[in-house]
Task: structure prediction
Amino acid sequence: MEPHFSRGAFLFWMKLNFMRFGFETDFEGGAQRCARRLRIAAESLAALALLSFPAGAQGAQATAPPPAQTNAENPKPRALLVVEDDWGRRVEIPQPVRRIVSLAPSATETVYALGLQDRLVADTDFCDFPPEAKKLPKVGGPFTPNLEVVVSLKPDVVLLAGNSANRKETADALDLLHVPAYATNAKTIDDVLASIARLGEVLGAAEQGKALTDSLRARLVELRRKLGVAPPARVLFVVWQDPLISIGQETYIADALRWADAESVIETKLDWPHVSLEEVVHLQPDYLVFASDHPEEVTSILTGLRKLPGWRDLKALQENRVAIVSEAINRPAPRIVDAIEDVARQLHPEIFAESPHASLPRRTHEGRSPARQAATPAEANP
Result:
């Protein structure tokens, strides 16, 4: 059976380096080789940029001068905003920002949410939300973008996300090419909200960023109030089912589950751990959680899993206690709050049923929610 795979799960696939690079478990070796290739390409482009090309020569427009440099078309140097990104890099960004290239689906979503889509000149093959983002020029995938195309677009800033398959080597290569690259790298939901606000400031939309994050935070506070002190649901978040891969406790997805009053049964600091099916059977999670915008695909997968040793021994699968949530939970962008609310409604339907105005999303599980172990609710970030 083919593994469950979707655009939303792409970030995990890239981090684990499945299939495309021919390594199922040796991600570090594959990433190092890809990094070397990227550095070689970047150094070659940088060397070419130092040469004086004849007018009209191929690639003559591949690199732009540093932002403060003047020319006949721009007689005055532009002001520079100096910031530190989430990778601790010092970035100088010309102001105002007029041209943005996004190398991460989460960054693309955030730019649209801030109302700055008119400045977005290109994004990646996997930037699919909102639908309008699909129509923009593409610069390749987040893991291996085409830097020559990126530079030719003369962006004022390139946006990356360290937890969405972008690599620091890409940002470093853009530095060599005198292209400002700003990266986010959220580890918690609070980090996600903070990164949205900071991105608004970087792009000259501080008021929009604050208004957006205030609204998202208010919804989370209301969700926490509604959930009260209900014991958390014990869940297995399935990133990939063969081999079985889940999430670590220190990922923003694990934190999203905690906001929804759920706790991953996998206790590890690894971001995307390979998990023993025997261990999961021993832990017996209350729910299995899949992220997909195509629930019919997950339903088909579940039909096959019910026939397999180990999987068929999971009570959650036997009793059809499976939650299918939006792929938005895979992206550290504003829609992750929608996904958190979705998870909470599916795992705690009895709480939301008390509200006559609470509309429940689709659920694949049937009947009442299972009895959960009495435990102190997981602490959420303030």
